[in-house]
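Duplicate of #3305? Posting structure anyway:
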């Protein structure tokens, strides 16, 4: 599952109701890298993820995948916003896992996984089903493939959501507080799947309050505050006694 593309943002900006919630974000992630994004509530972490994964349009700056700008087409030398069809195609390269799982409640686990590949990629059902089985085994849920989301625990639903994102073979996986909605005893099973994914070489951006995950699994830790990246460091430096003051102040609140 090695990925080959670098994804980056340059001067990414977002304004809501006249308030600038993202201020010139330069963020980049290399193939196979795992970055943990930390920061107080309201600092813009989710907004950056939604923009980078093309779930929402930015108000400035660019998002580049392998050096090519996303969300924009150049026609006759002029840049113009991508069509909805083109955006949908680009989104398939960008996997997203939400805090609240967001499975389709009226579909069983298998159907949740098959929808993307069959409807978007027009893959034969048999082929997609084989891939779904491989992924459901990988997240430990093959025995639950006929169940509906409401019959699963939160941890199981989140593992299905991860498998559903992976079946599209994304270049990068975005996780927005994937364990924050879970009962404490279910957090580990989801983190284990994410660690396995990181070990397999997946490029991952993970917004999380799990400092243990940031410390042990990520290659870099990024700290957000008030719409800006205020620090980026290796876990060793980030969680060290010599970390800069904003890092220490933040960690004092969460640890
Ligand atoms: P975080 O994920 O770090 O908690 P968010 O990206 O969700 O932060 O939010 C950043 C700021 O943008 C907050 O002030 C929030 O209230 C505001 N915001 C986020 N989404 C919207 C939206 N859809 N409409 C208006 N304001 C929003
Ligand atoms: Mg958020």
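Output from current build:
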């Amino acid at each position: 599952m090695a990925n080959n593309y670098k994804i980056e943002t340059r001067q990414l900006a977002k304004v809501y109701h006249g308030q600038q919630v993202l201020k010139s974000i330069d963020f980049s992630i290399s193939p196979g890298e795992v970055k943990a994004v930390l920061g107080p509530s309201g600092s813009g972490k989710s907004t950056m993820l939604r923009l980078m994964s093309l779930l929402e349009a930015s108000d400035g700056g660019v998002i580049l995948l392998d050096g090519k700008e996303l969300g924009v087409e150049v026609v006759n030398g002029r840049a113009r916003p991508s069509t909805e069809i083109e955006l949908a195609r680009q989104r398939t390269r960008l996997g997203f896992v939400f805090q609240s799982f967001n499975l389709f409640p009226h579909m069983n686990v298998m159907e949740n996984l098959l929808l993307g590949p069959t409807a978007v990629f027009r893959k034969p059902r048999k082929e997609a089903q084989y891939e779904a089985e491989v992924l459901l085994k990988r997240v430990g849920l093959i025995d639950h493939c006929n169940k509906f989301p409401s019959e699963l625990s939160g941890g199981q639903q989140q593992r299905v959501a991860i498998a559903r994102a992976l079946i599209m073979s994304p270049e990068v996986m975005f996780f927005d507080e994937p364990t924050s909605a879970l009962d404490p005893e279910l957090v580990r099973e989801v983190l284990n799947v994410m660690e396995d994914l990181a070990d397999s070489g997946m490029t991952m951006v993970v917004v999380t309050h799990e400092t243990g995950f940031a410390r042990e699994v990520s290659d870099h830790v990024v700290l957000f505050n008030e719409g800006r990246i205020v620090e980026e460091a290796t876990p060793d430096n980030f969680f060290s006694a010599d970390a800069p003051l904003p890092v220490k102040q933040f960690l004092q609140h969460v640890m």
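Confirmed duplicate; merging threads. The chain has one domain: 7-254. The pocket of magnesium ion (ligand 2) is lined by residues 45-46, 176 (CB under 6 Å).
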